[in-house]
Here is the input.
Amino acid sequence: MIPIKLYLVLSGVLFVIGTSGVLVRKNVLVMLMSVEIMLNAVNLAFVSFARYMMLPKGQVYVFFSITVAAAEVIVGLAIIISIFHKKESMDVDDMNVLKG
Amino acid sequence: MFSYLFMPIIIVVFTGLLVLLYDVLAVNVRKEHLLFISLAGLIISTLYSAILWGLPFSFMKGMLVSDNFSIIFSVFFLLSSAFILLISYTYLNDNNLNVGEYYALVLFATAGMMFMASTFNLIVLYLGLELLTLPLAILICFKKGRDFSHEASLKFFILSVFSSAFFLFGIAFMFGAAGTINIAQVAGDFSTHAVISLPYLLISAGLLILGLGFKISSVPFHIWTPDVYHGAPTPVTAFLSAGAKVAGFAALIRIFFYLFPGIHLSLTEVFIVLSVITMTLGNIVAIAQRNIKRMLAYSSIAHSGYVLMVLTVFTPASISSAIFYLMVYVIANLGAFGIVLALRQKDREYIDIMHFSGLAWKRPLLAGFMAIFMLSLAGVPPTAGFMGKFYLFSVTVKNGFTGLVIAGLINSVLAAYYYLRIVYLMYMKEEKENVPVTLFPSLGVSLFILGIAAIYFGIFPSPIISLFKTTLFH
Amino acid sequence: MGLIIFLILGILSVFTAIAVVVEKRPVYSALYFIANLVVLSLIYLTLHSEFLAVVQVLIYAGAVMVLFLFVIMMMPPVVENRFGKMSFQKFLIMPLLLIFLFELVYVLSCGLYASAGKSPSSLSFENFGGIVSLGQLLFKRYLVPFEITSLILLVAIIGAVYLRRSEQ
Amino acid sequence: MNSTLLNSVLFVVLFPVFGSLFVGIAGKWLKKPLAGIIASCSVGLSFVISVFTFFSLIKLPPDLRFFDKVFFQWVPVGHFLVNFGFYVDPLSLLMIMVVSSVSFVIHLYSIGYMKDEEHFSRYFSYLNLFVASMLLLVLADNFLLLFMGWEGVGLCSYLLIGFWFHKKSAADAGRKAFIINRIGDFGFLLGILLIYHTFKSLNYNVVFSNAPLILSHGSGIATAITLLLFMGAVGKSAQLPLYVWLPDAMEGPTPVSALIHAATMVTAGVYMVARTHVLYQLSPVSMGVVAFVGIITAFYSASIGMVQFDIKRILAYSTISQLGYMFLGVGVAAYSAGIFHLMSHAFFKALLFLCAGSIMHASAGETDLRKLSGLRKYLPVTFWTMVIGALSLSGFPGTAGFFSKDDILAHAYVTPYYGKFLWGLGIITAALTSFYIFRMIFIVFWGDKQKESHPHESPKIMTFPLIILALLAIIGGYVGLPESNLIHRFLSPVFLGTAVLSSNVELKTIMVSLVFSLGGIATAWYFYLVNPSLPESMKKKAAGLYKLLLNKYFVDEIYERIFVLPGRKLSSFFADVFDAKYIDGAVNETGKWIKTNSEQWRKIHTGYLRNYALIILIGGILLLGFLMTKIH
Here is the structure.
C-alpha cells in the first residue's frame, strides 16, 4: 500500500500551486481556476484520509465540496462576464478604483 | 418528526422561494408585497425561534442543533435582515433593484447564517458559509451602472473563495486529526484522551480561524472589508456589517468553545494578537477616512477586535458579553447605515462625512439619532455601546488580561475621535452643501426603533444580559 | 507497482497544475486544468474511490470546465504580462510560497496515523468507494447538507440569471 | 424616612431629564421665555425635593442617615450585579442642594442673558441635561453610575462650550474640553475596572465596607486605584497638568461658564475624592499626591491670574486655583472642609461669573480689563454683588469664603507631612487671590467711564439671581463657624475618623491668613487706586517677574532651556508640570502622529486584488507558523 504521507504531500503541493496561481495571475479566469486547484487539493486530502481510516464519509464531504465548487464557478463566471461587458478587460489590475 | 424544531430555517427558505415564485408568476406584481411577504416570513420565523427557547435538541448527532445559542443568533440574523429590508425599501425602488431576487437572496443568506449558528458539523458550517457568501457576492454587484459595485463584488468573491479554500483545508485537517468533523465529538474525544493528532488539530484550528477571520474581518484577513463596504450598495453594506460578521462570530464561538479546552494555551495567544492588531488598525485607519462607508468599514473592523478581546477565554461570561456586544454593535451600525441611506436623493448618495455638516439644524431628530448611534459606537454612556464595552472590559479583566483592556481603552479613546467628528460636524458646523434627505416611513420607523434600543439597552441591559447568560449550549 | 503508478500520476498532476498557473493563454490553462482533473480522478481510483472519480470527471471536467471554456471563447484572446504593476510582489511570492509549502508538508507528514487506528472498520473496498455506501450516507446521515447544497445551487442559478438579465 | 420621599429622590434627576427632553423636542413650538421657564422649573423642582429630603433626613439620628435606594437591577457583570440606585446620605444631599440651587439661579439668569439667542430652547435643553448628569453623578450609589454621570457632564460641556459653534475658537474649545476629559476618563475607567477586579463589586457600600478588610494600609493596589481615580478627577476638575481646557472653556456663553465653574462639572472631581475617601485613607501616597497637586495648582494658577487682562480668564484661573484648595482640603483628610469650600465656592464663583456676564451685557460683550473702567455708577447692583463675591473669594471676614478657606488651611497646618509648607503656600496663594480679584474690581468699577460706551444695568431677571447669590455668598459661611460648625457636624457621619481641630490652632491660622488676604486687597487698592502709576513702574522694576507671569511662566523659554541645557533636571520637572504649551503640544503632536500613521497604514489597502490575497496568505503563514511552534 502506498503510504498516505505521499498523498498528503501531493495534496499540500497542489494547494500551494493553486495559491500561487491566485497571487501571480492577472487574468480573473485563471485565478478562479487556481482556486479550483486549491479545492481539488483539499478534496484529495479528504479522500486519502477517508481511505486510510476507512471512513466513507470523507468522500461525502468531497461530494459536497465539488458541488459547492460548481456553484462558485457559476457565480464567479456570471460576475466576470458582467464585468467584462462593462470594462472589456479580464485584468484584475484594472480594477483598483477602491482603495485606501 | 423532528423537523418542526428546524422550522425557523425552513420558513425562511420557503419564504425565499415564495417571493421568487410571486415575482415570476403573479400578474400584477406590487413591490410592497415582496417586502411584506419577506417580512412576514422573517417575523414568523423569529416567533417560531422564540417558542423553541429552552427546548434544546440535536438532529443526527449535531448535524443540526437547536439550542439557546443558536436561537439567540438566529433571532439576531432574522431581525437584522428584517431591518435591512425595511431600511432599504425605497433605495431599491430608486435604483431599480426592487425585484424578487433581492429579497430571495437576502433570505437565503439569512438561512445560511442560521445554518452556521446551529450546527456542530463543520461541513454543514462550510455549506452555510457558502450559502451566505454566494448571495452576498451577487448582492454586492446588484447595482447597475456603477464601476464600484462590480469591482467590490469581484474582490469579495475571489478573496472569499480563496479563504474558504483554506477553511475547507482546515476541515480536512480536522477530519484527519480525529476521524470526525463533529466538533462536539472531537471535544469529547479530546477530553477522554482518545487518540487525536494534536498537530493536525492545531493547524486545523489555525485554518478555521483564517476562514472565519475573513468573515469577521479580523486583521490581516480584513483586507477586503473597506473596499467591499465602499463599493457595495449601502443596504448590502449594512447587511455585510451586521449579519455576515455576526454569523462569523457565531461560528467562531461555537467551534472554539468546544475546541478550546484542548488547545487553549496556543489559541489564547493567537486571539490576543489578533484582537490587538485588529482594533488598533481599524481605529487608526478610520481616522483618515473621509467617506462615511469606509469609515464605518474600519470601525466595524475595530469592533471585531474588541469582541476578540473577550474570546481569549471561552467562559460563559465571556460568551455572553461577546453576544451582548455584538448585539449592541449591530443596533448602532444598522442605525448608522440607515442614516447614510437617508442622505440621498434618488440614486445619488451623499457619503462624504462633510455632508453631515449642519445636519442638526436641518433635521434635528435625524441628527439626534445619528449622534446616539455614533456615541454608542464610541462607547459613551448612557448608550448601549458603553454598557457593551464595560461588560466586555470587565469580563476581560476578570479573565486576567489587564494589558488587553488597557489596549482596548486606549483604542476607545482613539475611536472617540472619529465618531465624535461626525457629531461635531452635525452640531458645530454650518451646512456646506444642500444635502437632500429622503426619509420614508419604513426607514423612519426602523431608525426610531434602533435609536430607542441603543439607549434602552444602555439603561436597562440586565434582562437581556441575564437572558444571554442562561446556559447556552445544551 | 502501485507506488510507481502513484508517482507517475503525482508528477503528472503537479505538472499540469503548474502549467495551469504559468500558461499565458487562458485556453491552454483551462485545457491543462481539465488534464489535471482527469489525473486526479485517476488518483482517486488508486484510493478506491470509484464513485468520486466518476463524479470528478462528470461534474468538473464535464460541466464546470465546459463553462469555463465557453467564457474563454467569448473573450478576446489575451496574452498577459503576469506581474504588471506590482513587481514587488514578485520577489515576495516565491519565498512565501516555499515557507507555506514547508509548513503544510511538515505538518501533513508529522502528525499522522494518530487516529487511523481508532476504528479500523472491516469495510471492504467495495463498500468504501462504491455508489451504494455513498448513497446510503448521502441520503440518510448527510441529508441536511445535501439539501443545503441544493439551495446553494439554486442561489447560484438565481444570481447568474439576474446578473445576465440586468445587463440588458 | 418614609419610602415615598426616598422614591421621589429619583425625580431629582428625572425632572431635569424630562425638562431637557421636552424643551429639546418641543422647542420649536415654544415661545422664547417659555422654554427657559420650563427648564428653570424642572431644576427648581429638583431643588424643592432635595430640600424636603434634607429636612426629613435631619430628623433622623446621625447614624441612620444613610440610604441606598435601589430602583432596579441595572447590569449583571459576571456574577455580580450593578444596580441602578441612589445613595442618599448627608454628603450627596448637601451636594444636590448646592447643585440644584445654584443651577436654578443660573437658569433664571440665562432667561435674561440669552433672550436674543436664536437657539434658545436648544440651549436650555443642554443646560437641563447638564444639571441632570451632575445630579446623577452625585446621587449614584456605585462607580458605574457615577461614571455615567461623569461622562454625561463631559458630553454636555462639550455641547455647551461649543454652543456658538460658528466661532471656530468655540468649537475647538469644546473639542479640547472633551478630548482632555477623555484622557482623564481613561484613567478613571481603568480605576473602576481595578476596583471591580479587587472588590468584585462596584457598589459603594460593598467597596467601602470591604476596603479596610481587603486592602492593607498603604498597599499598592489601594494606591493604584486611588491614583487612577484621581487621574479622572484631574481631568474633570482641571488640575495640573490637565487644566488647559478650562481657560479655553470661556468660549461658551457666560452662564455656562458659571455653571461649569460653580455648581457642576469641575467640582465632580472633589466630590469623587471625598466620596471615595475610604480608599484614599488607605493610601498616604495618594493623599499626598492629591494635596500637592492641589496646592501647586492653586498657587500656579493664582499667580497667572494676577496679570491676565480678560475678566473671564481671570475668573477661570481663579476657579482652577480654588479647586486646588479643595483638593488640598480633601488631600489633608479635611473632607468636610473641602466640601464646605466647594459649597461656598459654588455660591461666590457663580456670583462672580454672573456679574461678569452682567458687565458684558452692559458693555457690549467687552471682557478686556484695559477697555473697562468706571462702571460703578452705572451698574450699582452688579457692583455691590460683585464686591461681595470678591470679598468672599478673597476670604474677607464674615463671608462664606473666609470660613471655608480657613478651615482648609487650618487642617493643612496640622498635617504631619509638610503641613507647614502646604499651609505657607496656601496663605501666599490667598494673598495672590485677593490681589488679582480686587485688581479686577478696582479697574472695572473705579476710574472714569470709557468714552463712547453706554453702560446700563441688566434687567431684573438677571440682577435678581445676583442678589440671591450674594446673600448666599455671605450667609453660606455661617453653617461653618469655627465653634458650632454645623456643616462639619452634618457631614461627620460620612467622614468618620477624620481629623478634628482644636479651635486654638484654627484661630491662629485664621489670623495669619487674614493678614495675608487683607494685605492682598490693600496692595491692590494701593496699586490701582491710590497710586495707579505704580503698577507701571513696578512692571518696569520687576519686569522679569511680570513678564514671567504674563507669559505664563515662560514655558516656551524654559522648554528651550531643557533642550539647551539637559543637565537641568529640576527645571525639566517644572516645565513638565507647568507648561501649558507643552501639554497642548503633546496632545497636538500625538494627534498628528496618529494621523500620519493613519495615512501610512491605509496604504496597505492598495486596491490590488492580488496584494490582498498576498496579505491573507502572509497572515495565514504567520498563524500556522506560530501554531507549529506549539506542536511539541
Observations:
- The CA atoms of residues 374 and 404 of chain D lie 32 Å apart.
- The longest strand of chain D covers residues 67-77.
- Residues 168-199 of chain D form the longest helix (32 residues).
- Chain D touches chain B through 60 residues (CB under 8 Å).
